[in-house]
Amino acid sequence: MTLWTAADAAAATGGRARGDWNADGVSIDTRTLKPGDLFVALEAARDGHDFVAQALEKGPPPPSSAAYPTTCPKTRPCLIVDAVLPALERLGIAGRARTGARIAAITGSVGKTSTKEMLRAALEGQGRVHAAEASYNNHWGVPLTLARMPADTDFAVIEIGMNHPGEIAPLARMSRPHVAMITTVAAVHLEAFENVEGIAQEKAAIFEGLEPGGCAVINGDLAVSPILRASARAAGAKIIGFGGGVSNHHRLREAHVREGATVGKARLWRTDIMLKVATEGRHFMVNALGVIAVAQAMGADRARAICNLSAWAPPAGRGTRETVVIDPARDGETLELIDDSFNANPTSLSASLAVLAAARTRDGVGRVHRGRRIAILGDMLELGPRERGMHAEMANDPAMAALRTVHCVGPRMRALHDALPEAQRGRGSERVEELIPETARLVDSGDVVLVKGSKGSHVSRLVDAIRKLGQRRPSGDKEA
Q1: How far apart are CA 109 and CA 204, in angstroms?
Q2: d(CA 447, CA 434)
Q3: Distance between alpha carbon 105 and the CA centroid of its chain, in Å?
Q4: What SS3 state is found at 69?
Q5: Where, by residue number, does the polypeptide cross the bilayer (predicted)?
Q6: Cβ atoms 232, 209 nearer than 8 A
């Protein structure tokens, strides 16, 4: 199906189309480029123009080219623009303008991507759904998501992130959502903000992009919730609160973590309901309340959304749980791995530790008779001048008491390692490469192992090393 014709793309970007072509998709990465994609030669860590020749090898349509039209041979069709990123932004704005889709935008210090995927699942089967890939939530990810949106989309889910002040409002205005949700506000990116209140003001800027009559879905349990509500009111939005507090429209009354699921009772629309998500963690259940509110505000059927959420599990690296077979020849020689290696801050780490603390270990199947709860923790980045203290304070988290051993990776995590009781301290390493050769000695059959850290800490490499200890299989794949 044609996404952009040469004429439409040229009109949208203000560029000049060479030749006549149709694009079925839009890509910025030649590694995932498919025949039929328009390659956008962004100038980022590497200049995308260096890859134009490689893009051309994958067939039509052509790349877009900025400043250097000579990178696209005159015999080949292409789209020539003055500057690539502004052209991509204009393409995204045009993609948003031509659709009649109901659009939701999601931001928050923690849980943006998992909540975006939760909403995608809630909307499944209720129309054509378009959502951001991975964590495409920045200055190029948002316009790319909009540029990829088919004109006949029914529901769209846009994820919006930030690292510095002033980043969210322009992306929200570009997206023009009918509904905007803030998952939570926490001490993240404090290198760029003076305090959590400043982060709240920036997150609340998402409401500046709301369409007239739009809806703001807000976590009502936060100390900064009044800041979020004030910004929503200033935007003229209808406000729906979610969380555990009695003042919330959607309120979680009970949550029980079970193996492979969280179940609970909630009060939605003044009605008591049972709710389930197919993953472990009270924080997922709280965000599910917000997702249900968003889905209804988008015009979706709330009963179907609730049913769809019962089968939802987070994407890889964001709390997924799996069984790793240590020895296929011996029954029970497995451990449980919780992969939460994509992002970390004090709020999300506390939530992950609570999941680990509630996990059931198995005894009598490994080298160590009793199964253990083990955490392998990498640095939490972008926390600002108090980063060492914030790492050390995690030693006082209530869930820590249920853990047998904590291994720490990175110079910042050294502060937590030093603050832990001596009996609980595992390995303390500056670099993840130092721990990888010891993987088989760090974990054992019967253990439940959490790997958590900011993406830049590279603890995902330890996830891969643990998986290589045996054959990976989903934790839900139980033998009869």
Answers
A1: 11
A2: 22
A3: 13
A4: helix
A5: none
A6: no
- Cβ contact 130:156 at 8 Å: yes
Is 271 annotated as belonging to a binding site?
Answer: no
Token couple for 413:
């995590």
Domains assigned to the chain: 4-84 (3.40.1390.10), 99-309 (3.40.1190.10), 320-474 (3.90.190.20)
Q: Report the distance separating Cα 377 and Cα 416, nearest Å.
A: 9
Rounded to whole angstroms, the Cα distance separating 136 from 112 reads 11
**Binding residue per annotation — 111?**
yes
Beta bridge partners of 64: 40, 79
225 annotated ligand binder: no
Annotation-wise, does 112 bind a ligand? yes
Query: How many Å apart are CA 400 and CA 327, to the nearest integer?
Result: 29
Residue 115 in marked binding region: no
DSSP code string of 447-473: -EEEEE--GGGTTHHHHHHHHTTSEEE
270-314 per-position pLDDT tens digit: 899 999 999 989 999 999 999 999 999 999 999 999 999 999 988
**27 annotated among ligand-binding-site residues:** no
Three-state SS for 474? Answer: strand
Task: Enumerate long-range contacts of 316-319, CB under 8 Å, 24 or more apart.
Answer: 317/341, 317/342, 317/460, 317/463, 318/113, 318/114, 318/342, 318/343, 319/114, 319/279, 319/280, 319/281, 319/284, 319/352, 319/355
Please tell me the number of Cα atoms within 13 Å of 286 on its side-chain side: 20
H helix runs in 31-167, sequence order? 52-57, 84-97, 112-123, 141-147
Percent of the residues in the chain that have a pLDDT greater than 70, as a whole number: 91
* Residue 40 DSSP code: E
Model-level pTM?
0.84
Q: Which residue has the tokens 């009963």?
A: 303
Which amino acid would we find at residue 101? Answer: A
* 113 annotated ligand-binding residue: yes
pLDDT tens string 147-167: 999 999 999 999 999 989 999
Residue 396's alpha-carbon distances to 171, 190, 193, 380, 390, in angstroms, are 38, 21, 25, 16, 11
